[in-house]
Amino acid sequence: MDEQQVMAALRGVIDPLSGRDLVSAGMIQGLALKGGNVQVSIEIDPNRAPEMEPVREAAEQAVRALPGVTSVVAVLTAERKPPPPPTRGPGHGGPGHGGPGHGGHGQHQAKIDLPGVAAIVAVASGKGGVGKSTVTANLAVALAARGLRVGLLDADIYGPSQPRMLGIKGKPTATPDKKWLPMQGHGVVCMSVGFLMEEDTALIWRGPMVMGALQQMLRDVAWGPLDILLVDMPPGTGDAQLTMAQSVSLAGAIIVSTPQDIALIDARRGLNMFRKVEVPVFGIVENMSYFACPHCGERTDIFGHGGARDEASRLGTPFLGEIPLHLNVRETGDAGTPIVAAKPESAEAQAFRAIADRLVDSLGVVKMKPAPRIVIE
Asked: Which of 45, 233, 286, 369 lies in disulfide reach of 147, CB 3.0 to 4.6 Å?
């Protein structure tokens, strides 16, 4: 399989508006091949997004039929133009004539339905480097240990780390109805763009491509049935975060921060973003709350201590708990066995479990770890 074969397959997919194939119409704006994995970017007019969904699916089917193809990701991208200024004068400028709430980002897009998923919870941070992915992986394992059916969507497209965190290798397979089957590790089902590329591959994608990939990992994965789907969000408050908030009905969000002031400023931005899009915030987690020496047990407040608790109180949101900075957390994460699974009785694992319990209380989930089966011979 090579690029020419893929382009030849795409020539068989027709744009219904122009009547031309996608290649001749100049709509293929990105193509990447890695082993048997193919990624295609289809440039469209943003106003045609709903009607172009069948075309996107047809492009995937055409490429998937090629020998040697194991997975296909086709995304719709668009360079959205700003709306024209409202026309002034009699009978113009009011509702329905380009005013607020009409066109562009003001439109309310339909939510993606995830059958069988009871609750979707975003785990976010205003900045990178605060250990958000470590917190997400350990919370997922802690929730699964309670007997809950747990999924984890790695939405950090540029820095997918959950395959390593959960120790999952290989590539997802497809169901008969062309849905991806999520991978599984430590009782948690997971989907990540990291499964579709080599670990050292750099993704150079524009915002629309990232948003399209996120929507596809929501829409085209056989997630259910799940009690909770955790979403490991990318850092920041940009297009990817808004896409998640607008694409699915989030039950709520958790904000992860470290104690120092500079991290708390960004955590505040993240929290306020969710509030603006009317997503409840379950609370703040203080990660790397203090350093616990693995040899003597002495505690050192490297980044300060208690800043997230104080910020939660100031913002009127719950404080979910603090996670120490300990060598065991880093080593077990790098080894692909989160500390909640590797050393469940450790103080660090218990801290994650306590936060998971508070999340369950917030969601009103009451299912506990099932009783052992009794077999009568």
From this structure: 369
